[in-house]
Specification:
5 strands, 23% helix, three-stranded antiparallel beta sheet, two-stranded antiparallel sheet, alpha+beta, 109 residues
C-alpha cells in the first residue's frame, strides 16, 4: 500500500530572492556541507570630492579612498547548511536544472 502526501510551499511575505554570482564553503566539523553565497561588486566610495569650473561644471572628481579601483568586494548575501543526504539531492536537482537549461539552449540555436 502506498500513501500520497501533498507538500505545499508557503512563502513568507518578506520572501525576496537575492542574486548571487559566487559561492564559498566546505564541510564543517559536524560533517555538514556549508555554502556561503556572495555577490561580487565594485566598492562604493566613502565620499567624492568634486572640483567645479567657474560655470559650475564638474571638471575633476576624486573618490575617497582613492584606491577603490584595486578592490572587489564579495558581499555575502546568504548561506545554507545541509547534511550529506540533502546535498546529494541538491546536486541531483541542480544537474537536472542545468541539463534542462542546456537542452533548451540547443533548441534556441
Amino acid at each position: 500500500m502506498t500513501v500520497d502526501i501533498e507538500f505545499k510551499y508557503v512563502k513568507k511575505d518578506d520572501y525576496s530572492p537575492d542574486y548571487v554570482n559566487g559561492v564559498h564553503g566546505g564541510v564543517n566539523s559536524n560533517g555538514d556541507i556549508v555554502a556561503h553565497f556572495f555577490q561580487e561588486i565594485s566598492p562604493i566610495p566613502e565620499s567624492t570630492i568634486c572640483e567645479f569650473s567657474d560655470v559650475g561644471e564638474i571638471i575633476n572628481e576624486t573618490n575617497k579612498p582613492e584606491d577603490l579601483e584595486q578592490e572587489v568586494w564579495r558581499v555575502v548575501k546568504s548561506g545554507i547548511t545541509m547534511n550529506y543526504k540533502t546535498a546529494v539531492k541538491f546536486r541531483e536537482w541542480l544537474n537536472q536544472v542545468i541539463n534542462d537549461h542546456e537542452n533548451r539552449q540547443d533548441v534556441d540555436k
